Fold:
Amino acid sequence: MAEVYLNGKFVGEVDDSAGYIGKLRDERRKGIMPSSINFYLDKKSGRIEVESSRGRARRPLIIVREGKPLLTDRHIKQLEKNEISWSDLVKEGIIEYLDASEEENALVAFFEQDLTHEHSHLEITPLNMLGYCTALVPYGNFNQSTRLNAGSKNQKQALGIYASNYAVRMDMDVNLLHYAQVPIVETIMHEITEYGKHPAGQNIVVAVMSYKGYNMEDAIIINKGSIDRGFGRSTYYRPSVAEELRYSGGLMDEVSIPDKDVKGYRSEKDYRYLEDDGIIYPESKVAEGDVIIGKTSPPRFLSSMEEYNLASSTRRESSVTMKHGEKGVVDFVMLTENEEGNKLIQVRLRDQRIPEVGDKFTSRHGQKGVVGLIVPEADMPFSASGIKPDLIFSPHGIPSRMTMAHLIELVGGKVGALSGRLINGTTFDAEPEDKLRQELKELGFRENGVETFYNGETGEQFDSQIFVGNMYYLKLKHLVANKLHSRARGPIQLLTRQPTEGRAKEGGLRLGEMEKDTFVAHGASLLLKERFDSDRTIVPVCEGCGTIAIRDEYKEKTYCPICGENTEVSNVEISYAFKLILDEFKSLGLYPQMKLKSKY
Structure:
């Protein structure tokens, strides 16, 4: 006897569990039962679980009967001619969807040649196990799984042509690669997703070697000549928006060049790019602090008397300016109106980004690295045939990461570039490595991809043979220009009097618990005295009761709220955050007492 459960609820018992499951499965394949139902026989406990609930991940497989798949060449020809569709195959019982539990009862073959009489299903393609981005990695089955995931994630961050109508869009914070290319070593997914319409990388010559130690720890070295010829160039776009808002009492914002009597007026230099309507003109080069859209607003707080006397109240300055650390060129100015019919101005800025030291690049195999050095073309190592690599990749990135596909792509790219064709590198279904090596040999190169190289500075031949080939490299959106940040003095928070946080707010660089330990370990613990005084403050402390006293600057006297005036008060240097926590204790009814001792 086997218990039957429907969506986890007990519904009855059956005598022949295997026969019962077989009958249910046949009915589903015939279309009598919905295709969304799945059955699972737990052989240990003898339970039968029938699942029809929502939210299950299910995947399609080809049904196998007596060692032969039900999908025949006839079906494939009909599919190619569009005589039948996918849903027809599901209705005919050729393809069925299994969930995680029913898959426990199935024996699935990867390839048709692996089929035996015991197999119940066949994979449509082993590529099925990969998502869209992961399927774009060529020769993915030669990589370690972790790196395959990293390669997939890196491709999502690559700069490319994100939309062909970018010129008329106002997108926030986008990048556009100038000379994007289709990869030489591609997969079937490039064709399916029409990758040629939105490419995100470039084919370059990569040599695997070191160069004066500048590509240690995953760093890469780039040929300056390649950058001059357009490698990795991109443009960064960012819009600024201003609108004329309406306030109560009929007051409104006004887009114009602010008058000098406006509260918070900057300097004439800041408004130099504004035209008569208060809006900047296209193609003006702007930098930090420059005003893009001039705007004035009514005063924030109006007293009841001032409401009747609006002429006297001065307006305040509320222009849109370039943020801290930004620069660029005004690309596009658009004037329109919002839902309420108020004036809306959008100004798009652009900034050309040429690869520099610190920019992040990656191959499609999770081999990411930042630029460690940009070498003049004359100093680059060169091959016997005069080829100078565009990029030098460190050999130490390969052994521990086991990204064999990275090396195979170099050979494949080399073959494709020399023979003028695209190489199929689809995971589980790629052109075999032996075939690529044989073709490389026929093209007059060494089959293992190595070449004799010469020192670019001295002209001497290197002792080692250098592995070199063509590869699809991606520039990632993590650019130094967007992250570079430093601060001496600057804005502080109102509550804690400590520096603000973040690059956008011109914030401080936090020296935390662990950074403190490095100074102490280095023997420079006195440096912490200087480091930890971002919120240094001097407070008067009563020596009698140990609470913070009050200093009345107007009357020029100091007194204690508990002991009064006839007590000794000393000025003590403490962190403002400490003063804040003392106040917190007081609010809880605790009495924080400071006992003072003389320094001397």
